[in-house]
Amino acid sequence: MSLAGRLAGRAHVVLLEREALLAMHTTGRSAAVFTEAYGNATVRALTSEARPFFVNPPSGFADHPLLTPRTTLFVARPEHEGTLKEWLTENPRVSRAVPLHEAYDRMPILRRNLFAAAAEEPGAADIDVHGLFEGFRRMAVHGGVDIVTSAEVLGVVRAGERWSVETDKGAYTGRVVVNAAGAWAGRVGIVAGLGDRGLMPLRRTAITFEGPEGGDASKWMFVNDISEEFYFKPEAGLVLASPTDETPSEPCDAQPEEIDVATIAWRIEEVTTMKVNRIRRKWAGLRTFTPDRTPIFEFDASAPGFFWLAGQGGYGIQTSPSISLHAAARILHYLG
Ligand SMILES: Cc1cc2nc3c(=O)[nH]c(=O)nc-3n(C[C@H](O)[C@H](O)[C@H](O)COP(=O)(O)OP(=O)(O)OC[C@H]3O[C@@H](n4cnc5c(N)ncnc54)[C@H](O)[C@@H]3O)c2cc1C
After folding, report:
1. If both were cysteines, with which of 150, 156, 181, 297 could 192 make a disulfide (CB 3.0 to 4.6 Å apart)?
2. What is the pLDDT of residues 93-150, one digit of tens each?
3. Alpha carbon of 182 to ligand 1 centroid (Å)
4. 70 in contact with ligand 1, CB cutoff 6 A
């Protein structure tokens, strides 16, 4: 949708979505976090590049701020102190070490004596994902993009200078076809005869539950385990948590497995003084990665006009303003 918004008014664009509802797969299932210290160097650069858009979107794009500041606190158990040091070294501009006593003062629900070190990213934030998606959708619609829902792409073939895309609502042709099918991007690549670029959907689970009674959790930090065993943060009066699982999956409407839900409930009780008594919601989504965990937004080297926009992994929301800008520039250049 972000790319459709960027191309709107500059090219004739048709967006084909298999589902009747937009954003019902990974985009509607994220943790809504903006962090410039996440992912490899390319992903971090793309995220930093996106910050000005989030802070100052085009006029009329959103009714509310797209970012709400929320410091990220990283904690490390003794065996992972080295990983935290590496993280600090890799992210000198946006991170700083935090004395443990300060971490405990600011997050008193953390169990004492479990952790050996802490660090923070003060510039991290919550993203208004709905506001962002709606902004790009409005941008697309105002610029004449034709959004066709309940239109599953079944075939993609090159016919002369154009591509023909077969859907269950008929065929569409164009000089450029963009494969932005999320967890299904590998499948669509195979359908087009171009392979799957090694794209791998990995399931991630999240829950929300009632936080401590009488306490106001809304100002808590986003607490992350540096060894990626858990994270939690406040979310609309509740606490959102994830066991940060990465289970290989076929592309599908991902559902949470009981074992992953039980794991995160157990970990939260292990590392904090909270009790996970009432889980309000549980869900899972597929984060799709390339083999080197760098998103792809480029034309296929062997198929002129076939553009890959895939493998955004766990960073597709926070990088959407920058990736869409680069992708649109490449496509408009191709179209001449
Ligand atoms: C639990 C969880 C937490 C996350 N947290 C964050 C976070 O904090 N910050 C962040 O930046 N990112 C986060 N992410 C990652 C982010 O959500 C994804 O990178 C992003 O949503 C990917 O967007 P997408 O448009 O590629 O995929 P999707 O939103 O899945 O969109 C792909 C669309 O293609 C459609 N489609 C597939 N096949 C076809 C076909 N054959 N024909 C027609 N349509 C088709 C699908 O129906 C789908 O709507 C998280 C993800 C999960 C699961």
Report:
1. 156
2. 999 999 999 999 999 999 998 999 999 999 999 999 999 999 999 999 999 999 999 9
3. 5
4. no
